[in-house]
Here is the input.
Amino acid sequence: MMAFALYVQYGLRLMPCNLCILQRGAVIGLGLVFLLAALHDPGRIGARVYASLVALAATLGVLVSARHVWVQMQPPGSLPSCGADFYSMLEMMPVHEAIATVLRGGAECQTIQWTLFGLSMPVWVLIGVAALGLGGIAANLRLGRAAARPGPADDTRR
Here is the structure.
């Protein structure tokens, strides 16, 4: 998902809005949790922890994406301009205020610059993050159950 976002930004020259930046953060967070879980190869308790972290990252991604979809559905001109870009906001105000300002949405976030099958990029991010989140939760919970059962190597009855 991040590779495509970077292609759209640098290849197609479509600059991300502030809500897009927050969605990228959620996607990166989800990817980092997946990477850590794969490298760690957790047992039962660790798999549950990773399932919770996947759920948290996916939920944040879904919420930000859903907010972006809602902003895009508002009548044109009904939202004020965001003003500065997200990185400038972080320099001017505390992180929680910058995120709150971005989540209010703005005219820049209303613009739909790209669609596939009639769905805008935030809709695809919402679908992708939800699917990856559900898959990651299911995989970690399944791994946790498998780690609790003794395997063939643990069978001492031979």
The CA atoms of residues 88 and 98 lie 9 Å apart. Helices lie at 2-11, 18-40, 44-73, 86-92, 95-103, 107-110, 121-148. The longest strand covers residues 115-116. DSSP finds seven helices and two strands in the chain.
